[in-house]
Design goal:
5-stranded antiparallel β-sheet, 24 helices, alpha+beta
């Protein structure tokens, strides 16, 4: 039923209109502005006529009418203008211009206005009746078209080679085309809403159901790959796809789906992926047996239900390298079957026959008589039948015209049927396996030959191989490291030209005799090498070891024994002479002479004790047994103590001075051993100043801590020797040409003690101002202590 829209800014006018039009019996919608009228028309378009006042504030009747006519939904609603003021002809023209059907002046006759409105209501009713009749006619025509279209669709669907189906909005199947029945072998009476689920492969069904539920829930296109079982019981891959068909409201009315056979493409893709994975598995290791076992595991479930690999052994027997199946129970059964009926290389069929003949076999459908032929007795045949074998192929593994084994693929419960494409893929796999086996065997041979060469390259002994003409064929890494001679500079050259000392020393080494140590001068180095020689048909092999360090150590030990012996002999001789003199009864020794002889005994005994202490301390340093007690040490007090003690026995002509700042931080050190370092440096300065001269001890704040500098104007140390003076047993004057002895341990002990105190020690020459160097300065730097000086000492005192 239509409604009437009344628009006037005066409420009393609206009441008057409502009273006039109420007898018509239609809904009256009253608004007081043009804007409010437009808002009502945004949501409703069921008005038979609009009665619109011309004179209204903000948005007048003309402007309101223009907007109404511009909107498509409201453009056909008749408008009657009502006015009491705008009666001029131009106003009337404008009213008709904006789309009004009538222009009524106030006051107006109620009966006339009611009659005019009734005409528009009747017109609306007739238009509505015509629209409904047109819709009914359209629905009838549409239904007829749908029936014809559905029939044509069924005829087209039945003619298609694909499976076609439809389902309702809930996914229940409502139609299958003829291809469905031909492929599945189902009869019309067997088909229901979920018939598809009974022929879908069990492994694929969960994913299909999940994707179906998702499509039904969100209305997206259904697309999934799955396997359908055919009338012969085999499964083939299909691409299932369904799209929703929606009604005018956008809701899903029904679904149209297809299932396209993609089995051949799927098989090719699977075979390619399998070959790639199998190739990667074979390449994982040089153990080709392990690789083939891995390939057999990959094959199960992807290209077959069973996979077995048989290998021809060196003795002519055939062994089962592996047999794989997804079901452990069937696997145990098959292995027991293999043990009960092992492969017979001479007469057996299957893998033994393929290995014997080198010809591949393919049986897409295993007939019963083939099992009977392969069985050795009735029990064997019955056991084979229990396996439910369906399809079979076997390909040889051949390399260099020699069959190495065979790969067997068998299907059963999966319903898969092996085809020529599977055979080609299996042959490709066998070819790759043969290549891997051949490469592995070649690698093993090369590896056996290379092990000797690798051993020669990695052993600690130097090895040189000469051919019959004494040309160098091999010069290993150890030989390079020992001699500094590079193999690239030696290989292919005559040994007499390339190896220094070969002609004079190495060539004279007894062949097949005991090792001989010979010297070689290479560059500015002298090496002592112990050579052994072995001659064979193609040349001579020399092995040698570097004994240079051992020889130097032996020489050092010899020098040390000689030095210590000399150093010990001198005080012992003095002690012995003094003791003998004191024991002589025929001499009348006065008290002064007796005291002097006793002083000699005491001084030389101290000297002996110092030598022994140095040797023991050096031994402790070498073995790592020396334990240091780090404490806070007053550097100034320690320096004064060392200098005061040294002054008590300074030789004539030598002066000793100490220079320290007023304030000096304490150091972190073992006081006893730091004292020994300073004492050694001062005594060393005195010892190497045989002509006398000043010795200065300066204490300053250095870069990393407190620094001591002990300077003399004595013999000095040549620049080339300054790094060696801290070596063990090194003496600047080993032959004592200036009468300076010593064990050569003092500076070595200083270096090791300072290093253990996290300090550093070094020596520099002293310049006399004219560019000449006279004497030396030894520097020692020890880290500053983190605690104030006296803390440790106070603790000892308190204790």
């Amino acid at each position: 039923m239509p409604s009437l829209l009344l628009v006037d800014d005066r409420p009393q006018n609206l009441l008057a209109l409502q009273a006039i039009l109420e007898p018509l019996g239609h809904e009256l919608v009253s608004v007081t502005s043009g804007a409010e009228a437009l808002r009502v028309l945004l949501t409703r378009d069921d008005f038979a006529v609009i009665l619109l006042d011309v004179q209204m504030p903000i948005l007048d009747g003309f402007e309101t009418a223009e907007v109404i006519k511009q909107r498509e939904r409201t453009s056909t609603i008749p408008i009657i203008f009502l006015t009491a003021l705008s009666k001029e002809q131009r106003h009337v023209f404008r009213g008709y211009e904006v789309g009004a059907v009538d222009y009524v002046f106030k006051p107006f006759d109620a009966e006339i206005l009611r009659a005019k409105v009734a005409v528009f209501i009747e017109l609306w009713d007739k238009n509505e009746q015509i629209r409904r009749q047109a819709e009914q006619l359209a629905e009838q025509e549409l239904a007829e078209l749908r029936r014809a279209s559905a029939e044509r669709y069924r005829q087209l669907a039945d003619a298609m080679p694909q499976i076609v189906w439809t389902s309702d909005d809930e996914g229940n199947a409502t139609y299958y085309n003829r291809r469905w029945f031909d492929y599945t072998g189902m009869a019309d009476g067997e088909v229901d809403a979920i018939a598809w689920s009974r022929v879908t492969h069990p492994d694929d069904l969960p994913s299909v159901v999940a994707r179906r539920e998702q499509s039904l829930a969100d209305g997206t296109v259904f697309e999934v790959e799955y396997r359908f079982r055919g009338a012969d019981g085999t499964y083939r891959w299909h691409l299932g796809r369904a799209v929703p068909i929606r009604d005018e409201s956008g809701e899903i009315d029904f679904w149209i789906g297809t299932a396209t056979d993609i089995d051949d493409r799927k098989r090719i893709e699977e075979a390619q992926r399998f070959l790639l994975d199998a190739g990667a598995e074979l390449a994982l290791s040089l153990d080709w047996r392990a690789g083939l076992q891995g390939v057999a595991k990959l094959a199960v479930g992807r290209v077959a239900d069973w996979c077995a690999v048989h290998v021809l052994e060196d003795d002519g027997s055939i062994s089962t390298l592996t047999i794989q199946h997804a079901d452990p129970a069937k696997l145990v059964f098959a292995r027991e079957l293999q043990e009960r009926y092992p492969a017979d290389p001479a007469t057996g069929g299957g893998a033994p026959e393929v290995i014997r003949t080198g010809e591949a076999q393919l049986v897409p459908d295993i007939p019963p008589h083939l099992l009977a032929r392969a069985a050795r007795d009735e029990l064997h045949e019955e056991l084979l039948r229990q396996l439910g074998l369906r399809s079979y192929l076997c390909v040889p593994i051949t390399a260099r015209d020699r069959t190495l084994g065979a790969i067997t693929l068998v299907t059963e419960a999966s319903g898969r049927r092996l085809t020529e494409s599977d055979l080609r893929a299996a042959e490709e796999l066998a070819g790759r396996a043969a290549t891997v086996i051949e490469n592995a065997q070649l690698y093993e041979e090369v590896e056996r030959r290379a092990r000797a060469a690798r051993a020669l390259e990695t052993i600690a002994d130097g090895v040189v191989l000469l051919d019959r003409d004494e040309r160098i064929l091999l010069w290993n890494n150890a030989a390079e490291a020992m001699t500094g001679l590079r193999a690239a500079d030696l290989l292919g050259r005559p040994a007499r030209e390339a190896l220094p000392g070969y002609a004079e020393n190495v060539s004279a080494v007894d062949v097949d005799g005991r090792p001989q140590t010979v010297p070689l001068e290479i560059g500015d180095r002298e090496l002592w090498l112990s050579f052994s020689a072995m001659r064979f048909e193609e040349g001579t092999v020399y092995a040698f070891r570097d004994l240079t360090e051992e020889r130097a150590l032996e020489q050092m030990r010899s020098d040390f024994v000689a030095t210590v012996s000399h150093e010990l002999r001198t005080p012992l001789a003095a002690i012995y002479g003094a003791a003998v003199t004191l024991r002589r009864e025929d001499l009348d020794l006065g008290e002064e002479m007796r005291g002097r002889l006793l002083d000699v005994v005491a001084d030389e005994s101290d000297r002996l004790a110092q030598i022994v202490n140095d040797v023991l301390l050096a031994s402790h340093l070498d073995s790592g047994q020396l334990q240091l007690q780090i404490e806070t040490v007053d550097a100034t007090r320690l320096s004064e103590s060392v200098v005061d003690a040294a002054r008590t026995h300074l030789p004539d002509g030598i002066t000793l001075t100490l220079e320290t700042p007023k304030r000096l931080p304490p150091v972190a050190a073992d006081e006893q051993h730091l004292r020994q370092v300073l004492v050694n440096l001062v005594e060393n300065a005195v010892k190497y100043s045989p002509d006398g001269g000043p010795i200065e001890v300066r204490v300053t704040r250095g870069e990393r801590g407190v620094r001591w500098a002990v300077s003399d104007r004595g013999l000095g140390i040549p620049p080339a020797e300054r790094r060696r003076v801290f070596e063990k047993f090194y003496r600047l004057d080993p032959n004592m040409t200036r009468g300076i002895g010593g064990t050569g341990l003092g500076l070595y002990i200083c270096r090791e003690l300072v290093r253990r105190l996290d300090g550093r020690i070094w020596v520099e020459g002293n310049s006399d101002g004219n560019g000449d160097t006279r004497g030396s300065t030894f520097f020692v730097e020890i880290p500053v202590a983190k605690r104030p000086a006296g803390t440790k000492r106070a603790a000892k005192t308190a204790a």
